Amino acid sequence: MYSLRSRRAKILLATSSFALIAYLIRRYRRYILLKKRRTLTNSREQTTTNVTPLTRKTLNKRFFHQIRILIRILIPRIRSDSFLLLIVHLTTLISRTFLSIYIAHLDGAIVKSLVQRNPRNFLRAISIFVSVAIPASFINSLIRFAESKLSLAFRSKLTRHAYDAYFRNQTYYRVSTLDSRLLTPDQNLTDDIETFTSTLTHLFSHLTKPFFDIAVISWSLVSMVRQRKNARGLKEVPGMILIVIIITFMALRRLSPRFGKLVSEEARRRGILRFAHTRVIANAEEIAFFDGHEVEKSWILKLYDQLREQTNSIIKKKLWFVMLEQFLMKYFWHACGMVTIAIPFLTYDGPAETDDPIGDPLGISARTEAFTVSKNLLTSGADALERIISSYKEIAELAGHTDRVYTMLHVFDDCAHSNYQRTPIIPSDNPSECSSALAKRKISVDHRAKGEIIESDEDIIAENVPIITPNGDIIVESLSLKITPAMHVLITGPNGCGKSSFFRIVRGLWPIYSGRLYRPDPSNFFLIPQRPYMCPGTLRDQIIYPHTVDNAFVDDSQLMEILNNVELQYIVQREGGLNAERDWKDILSGGEKQRLGLARIFYHQPRYALLDECTSAVSIDVEGKIYERAKQLGISLLTITHRPSLWAYHTHLLQFDGNGRWTFEVLNTEKLLTLKDEKERLESQLAGIPEIQKRLNELTQLIGEDIITTTENEENDD
């Protein structure tokens, strides 16, 4: 019976072992497959976004270079407020270390008084402990306070520096339009900076105090060990501690996941998800019209699943790593620490040390006090060493945040100096799926534009200037013309031919890749788009934008005259005055917003007004008055429009044909209107030919004659 049970147990054990091995092999193969897929996906995403991946070694020259550059921004000089807060924070950390050593000795005195059964010494030690607890509690709170203040100071310094770079030389436009390295600059400017500064200050606390703790505690322990001169094996204790530390550090480093890369990728996916929500908010009306909520929901859920998968991967990796970390630095170190403490006591062969030869001749209370103090000091030292070693994971995470912040500032600087990196959109192999401009001509955009922009007094002169989109599409290969302030230019052509692109080239928003462009200072240009930008603020702010009330140069009566020029004087009384604050984007109609945008050219009175379909929602009689008043002020009008009613207010015509060709000539309004009337008449006549042919066929069938097509009639005539 026993042998039968033993055989069954062996069979069950073998079967279970085989099943377990098969399961582990299957899981391992699945892990390898998922790892290959994840590596392929990450490589594709990095190729698409041009983001430099973090290497396996987190603490490399690249990281130290990046953190050194950022620290110079955080602490620009010794007398800065951030440096003073750093000194205060460091002082609190050092004070806490000395308090910890003093409290450890107090614990030893309390235990000694208990062993000696001395109530007087016990109450005295307890009283001292309670009195010391008050400043200790204050210092603990002060450490958190100083850390929070230092983090806020670092964040303020870095945020101001980033905003200065973001709003310099139109970087806010270039980084999103002309460059593709930053997908979510809004997240880089907010969440990434906050996370970087808080992680940096927290890591400073977790590294500075442990190093100082280890130094002071080691000195205290050495002083205590020197008192045990008759103990054996003391020379081997430092070597044992060093071996334990090296083994722990090497094990954690070799088995540590790449937290820096994982956290950086998580932050990137979080930014993409936030951008998707922003896009839905910005296009909510169009999505509601088309009932496209299911598509948007599925897309956002897909992005969330990608973020959840990355976060779940980090959580799983942290599970096994934290388990190993806790085993080594909590239980293994505790056992090694007890061995280290026991060596001086077990190997001591000198006379008994006691301060009470009668009550405690063997010195038990003194040994208990020394053991308690040593244990507390070693525990504090082990905690400090644990924070230092476990900080490798936090340093890896800091490396990820550092890389994102440094990359943001580097891209801002590149864009400010016209150095762009953009991944071009590759057109489809099927020409029918591509626009004509994409299918015909495309170049590889260089990082730096080679064209010249030369400031002139008044005229706009283009010499062999190409119009090339940020994606590398060649719209016009070479444009050469001269526009003087006395000219009023009408710009026409089909969609996508380069009309608005010409404005961007002249204003300097797009780079010039060859040729020369002579133009006045950018302050001489003012653009009014089809949908004017309504800034937050009062009605006065809308008129004088981008000026503010502090630097406005007109009074209320002049502002009323400006509103009268665009037939908007009634809006002041309707909305409650010039200082009324409203959500102007939603309150005003389309025509009112366009006229309010046109009011800005009467306030600024630029030399050139760039008008891009800015009167499409304005009645013909009102737009005529606005154009006539603008010409009377000496403003040169460069207008993109499809309305023939505006031809009479222009002197020259710049026409693009959509195939890269263009013409620039004097505008003959009467001739152009005559040709337009003839074109409309011919189109109406041609539109009726199919209906006439159809009716002729019906009549022929009714009277029983043969159907004679127009083509046959032409052949008979021939």
TrEMBL record:
The keyword Metal-binding does not apply. It comes from the Eukaryota. GO terms for cellular component: peroxisomal membrane. It is a multi-pass membrane protein. Gene3D superfamilies: ABC transporter type 1, transmembrane domain (1.20.1560.10), P-loop containing nucleotide triphosphate hydrolases (3.40.50.300). It holds the Pfam family ABC_tran. PANTHER family: ATP-BINDING CASSETTE SUB-FAMILY D MEMBER 1, ATP-BINDING CASSETTE, SUB-FAMILY D MEMBER. This is ATP-binding cassette sub-family D member 2. It comes from Adineta steineri.
